[in-house]
Amino acid sequence: MSQSGILKRSTILIHGSVGMPLAIIGYPLVVYLPPFYAQEVGLNMALMAIVLVIARMSDVITDPLIGTLSDRWQTRIGRRKPWLIMGVPLMLFGTVMIFMPPEGIGIGHLLTWTIIMYLGWTMVTLPYGAWGAELSPLYHQRSRITASREGFVLIGLFLAALAPAFVQGMGARFQAGDTDGAVMQTLVWMIGKDGELGTGYGPILASMAWLLIILLPLTVLLVVTRVREAPPQSVQRTEWKQGLRVLKNNGPFKRMMLMLLIVVTGESFRNALSVFFMQHVIQIQAQIGLMYLIYFGLGILGIPFWLILGKRIGKHKAFCVALGIASASILAMFFLQAGQLVPFAIMFAVKGFCFAAFQFLPLSMLADIVDVDTARSKEHRTGLFFAMSGMAHKLAMAVGLGLSLGLLALVGFDATQSVHTDTQLMALRVLYIVGPVVMFTAAFAMAWNYPLTSERHERIHQWILRRNVRVQLEP
User: Fold this and answer.
1) Segments in 227-338 forming alpha helices (H)
2) Which DSSP helix (H) or strand (E) runs through 216?
3) Closest-CA residue to 110 (of 55, 60, 46, 28)
4) Fewer C-beta neighbours within 10 Å, C or N terminus of the chain?
């Protein structure tokens, strides 16, 4: 990092690359895991929702602990890097056991290995996010850093969408009798079952596990060896109760936390129902993989647009624009009927274009919020802030997932059945459309008058710089 805070493009890209494997695991957890365990493993959907929420609750302990420790633990290679190195094996092992479970497993297997996987995820993602926030103190440089990371997230999501389309296509060929060839035999060995390659959700999740096994160690090794951490700051440490009071009085932070809870809950709620909606309401199961390819492809293309818009009108206003467009596209889906593939694809693509803004704008705004805390508390607690936002993100994902699956079970929707009543299908339609739109509308109202603008952040940043100079000159 240069003294001016301007980063090389290579540094930004290498650091952002870890977002790619992290997306590959996050996407199937909310999209393919519920139908796989409900339809193919045979777990009760309501019970599964409870278990996934309980597993997420473990983060209430691990997130603030690891966030605080990564702020204060000094090693020869840095504060953040050791956590990534330790977290990778836990994350990989937990993911393999969840995505490629042995025969005859029950609800206890899902609970145990999901908790282990989430622990590894926390050890990787929280220090990694704090590290990115510290790479530059500049308002728009942080947008570039988060845009790079979330760009790689979208690339990972695109790969995660490409894998199902490829696997389902190869599975269909195998079922049709085309069982020869090196590629087919390799796939049967890697993701098949009993010497066969099917077209269900099991092979899809197995392919995701293999992608993670290959990409996560590679990208973590690259960023640990090629990107420097920001030098540790010499700061005053406040007593913990006083620190909590500072967080409580940080208005932008409180608003951001509530916005994250609402938006991520809405996204998780919708994502958990997307496969069911496409499979049973629009009846385009064979094209589900293609739909997600379009969705995340448009998300990647949308990154420059949202980056430029955020620079021109402010990050929070750009975020509001994305919420408004996304809500309109989702509402339009309410009127679609079975077989309307092209209209659904267009609306789904519009939502995917907005997804890029959902990914990187809030994280960039959070990095600015840390400076407000630094100005008031004289501490650099980036890890703690990202731990708390990560905890809110995971809690919201769990609530959205559990709430959507629980409500779906409550209306009598049985995922193992191929035929459903008109009442059940209408309930699914209403849940999929109305739930996220209500939450996005609430987030829009909160974000529109968000107080931490680029002008205010620049004043805070300059004040911190002047104070640091005074501290260095003191005897």
Assistant:
1) 240-248, 251-276, 288-313, 315-332
2) helix 201-226
3) 55
4) C
Q: Which residues contact residue 205 at a Cβ distance below 8 angstroms, ignoring those fewer than 6 apart?
A: 28, 32, 33, 36, 98, 99, 100
Spatial distance between the Cα atoms of 315 and 447, rounded to a whole number of angstroms: 10
Q: Report d(CA 95, CA 378) in Å as an integer.
A: 39
Output phi, psi for 196, to 5 deg. Answer: -130, 160
Range 360-391 burial, b when 16+ CB lie within 10 A, else e? bbbbbbbbbbbbbbbeebbbbbbbbbbbbbbb
257 pLDDT higher than 60 = yes
- Distance separating alpha carbons of residues 363 and 361, to the nearest angstrom: 6
CA neighbor of 321 nearest in space, from 329, 312, 309: 309
CB distance 20 to 159 below 8 Å:
yes
Residues 6+ apart with CB under 8 A from 93: 116, 117, 120
CA distances for 396 relative to 24, 64, 257, angstroms: 19, 16, 10
3-class DSSP state of 177: coil
What pTM was computed for the model?
0.72
Annotated domain spans of the chain: 9-227+237-470
Work out the end-to-end distance of the chain between its first and last CA atoms, rounded to an integer number of angstroms: 28
Query: Roughly what angle, to the nearest 10 degrees, separates helices 382-410 and 422-447?
Result: 150
Contact 258, 378 (CB under 8 A): no
Instruction: Pull the structure tokens for residue 200.
Output: 């269900």
The per-residue pLDDT for range 26-77, each reduced to its tens digit, is 778 878 888 899 888 888 888 888 888 888 777 767 877 887 788 778 888 8
Whether 190 and 210 have beta carbons less than 8 Å apart is answered as yes
Taking the C-alpha atoms of residue 127 and residue 145, their distance in angstroms, rounded to an integer, is 15
Where is 450: in which H helix or E strand?
none
Question: Dihedrals φ, ψ of 174, to 5°?
Answer: -65, -45
Q: What gap in Å lies between CA 49 and CA 111, rounded to an integer?
A: 11
Instruction: Quote the pLDDT of residue 463.
Output: 66
Check if the beta carbon of residue 291 is closer than 8 Å to that of residue 283: no
With a cut of 70, say whether residue 383 has pLDDT above it.
no
Of 448, 435, 440, nearest to 324 (Cα)?
Answer: 440
Query: What is the DSSP secondary structure assignment for residue 233, as one 8-state letter?
Result: P
CA 262, CA 400: separation in Å to the nearest integer? 9
| Selection from 140, 127, 153 nearest residue 16 by Cα | 153
d(CA 163, CA 182): 18
